[in-house]
Amino acid sequence: MESFTITSKKVLTLVLVIDKAEQKVLLGYKKRGFGAHLWNGFGGKVEPGETTREGALRELEEEAGITVKTEDFKKAGILLFQFENDPVALETHVYKSYEYQGLIRECEEMRPQWFAFADVPYDQMWEDDRIWLPMLLNGQDPFYGRMYFKRKPVEDTKEIETTVTSVVNTSTSTHVNHSTTMTGTSFTTAQPKSGPFAMCDYQLEHSLQGVPREIALDGTIASFEN
Ligand SMILES: Nc1[nH]c(=O)nc2c1ncn2[C@H]1C[C@H](O)[C@@H](COP(=O)(O)OP(=O)(O)OP(=O)(O)O)O1
Fold this sequence. Notes:
The chain is mainly beta. The protein has one domain (2-224): Nucleoside Triphosphate Pyrophosphohydrolase, CATH 3.90.79.10. The chain has helices at residues 52-64, 129-137, and strands at residues 8-19, 24-30, 39-40, 74-83, 88-97, 110-116, 143-151, 161-165, 176-177, 186-190, 197-206, 212-215, 221-224. The termini are far apart. Keywords: Cytoplasm, Hydrolase, Magnesium, Metal-binding, Nucleus, RNA-binding. Residues 8-137 form the Nudix hydrolase domain.
């Protein structure tokens, strides 16, 4: 895992708006930039002087046209994304809300759309989403984790079928390691739709100590929110 050594991190946000009554989640189709052509929550880089919470709310407004009241805006977890031979990790602060105000609208970067929980297009999302998004939708947060990605060989970005294993993890506090303890069902998916990176390993834990504030470079939780 030497090729995954990191020396710094960038702070990003990711927001999931959920309609609990209808069991639907609002995703956006990313039209350009990092993660283009994938469905994802709304978010981006935190600007200087902003808290992660402020940055997340700003991105939600910019990308989907809607606002969320502070009291409805909940931190769901932190994910540290690491890329092979890249010393800069992406520390992504994940938020969720069951309420929103305003009219959902498309912008030049994102095309928003509601998805029933059962129809979330995991084969057209970052590969890690199928691990943690079901936890978030089921209320099994807060969580924290690390995900490791390799760049796919160029030939893999063409249309090929590959087998992916999905996690069926009913426990709320176990350490899940992609390479050793994954259990579940196999299914096939068109990998190219999940972007130019392949997830090769991950760790994900339900945080029992509270809401994580930051992940240290060694992957441990540096501190928790009050
Ligand atoms: N592995 C991953 N899984 C996931 O679900 N979301 C990820 C991800 N890696 C990155 N993201 C999210 C975090 C963030 O919301 C978004 C990247 O945001 P950025 O603002 O960096 O994107 P852009 O390249 O569009 O930047 P700008 O030029 O600032 O608009 O992608």
